[in-house]
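A brief tutorial aside. Many learners find it easier to grasp structure tokens once they have seen a single protein encoded end to end. The record that follows does exactly this for DUF239 domain protein. Read the sequence first, then the structure, and try to relate runs of similar tokens to stretches of the chain.
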Amino acid sequence: MIIILLFCLCLAAKNYEVYGSMSNFSKIEDLELEEQLKAINKPPVKSIQTEFGRIVDCIDINKQLAFDHPLLKNHKIQLKFSFQDTQTNTKSHDRSGYSKIGLDDKDLCPKGTIPVQRTTKDDLIRAKRLSNNFGTLTKFDRGSHFAGIRIRGRIFFGVKGNLDVYNPPVDDHQMSSAYIYVSTGESSIPVPNHMFIHAGWQAYPGMSGDKLTHFFVEWVRNIIQHTGCTNMLCSGFVQTSQKIYVGAPVANVSSYGGPQFTMSLNLTQDPATKNWWLKAQDMDVGYFPASLFSNKLDFAMKAGWTGHTQFFLDGPSPPMGSGILPDGNPLHSCYISKMYFKDRFRNDRAPLKDQMLVYADNRRCYDAKYYGFVDNNLERVMMFGGPGGNCGL
């Protein structure tokens, strides 16, 4: 039962405000949900009521849900990235401020614990409803659209960038996101051994239960069999941060023509352990263990930065980014700046123009353009996005 639950949660579940009710659930199913909640929600050392109306529990770092995964049964937790990353400091975060993701400094979890958003019965109901539709970013069907940049002709050991964060208007059958990624597949055609890691922001009410933008991570070991996981509501990602938790709502987002807020992300493979470490806002968040991929993600064949939208029922595609096509103005168009990839020595390399594949699968609705240098505070910039609509195939 726990394995079935974890599978469902890997396919969905993040935040709150329920879409639908429990009226179709029997008493037996309701009891099963209660048992699943007991298995998912580990005993807290401390609980925190957040400004978003959700409870975050401080869980013993060694008892987090990640270690329920069968591939992590004998995993020894790595508390710190072993390689000193001294390259291209992103702390200047362009002209913008950092989006707030995670707990306030006054509410940090105690040492030896990590913050985990408490799973509710409504989260499980949404997970069950989505499990037949595999409602995560890993379902690339006719309802998906992309606009971004990937690098070609190399192998990669990491990727990083500053993501401009927006809150595009979406309904519960739509999703809009932006993320950095690494992948074992050179093409976008799904194959059984196609593995990847995503990290970024997304707005998807059908999963989260609200219309906020959320910080998310996602991994897939086998894209055909859908063996993967989203956030901490299923096992896989090992969190080490006392402050930032995956699935967290973003407190401040950019506005058209107004203040801009970014999410600085850095995904790098540790040369000693082969674990893939994630930094956000210049802080270690945690890592994807090498054993999660059966040690077959020693390097990536593809890396990049992208916007992504999806709709799961008939209807229009949602806006991407700010909802504006790239126009060269960072106060108008959503952007990703300070785009770098990691070479085998974990040094930052700026992609050359002839190494970049700039793509948009439907330019009627979305586009991406590389502008490079915009001003002294904004460099290596891609702008992407668009209004969506009836994009067709």
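Self-check: The CA atoms of residues 182 and 303 lie 4 Å apart. If you spotted this yourself, you are ready for the next section.
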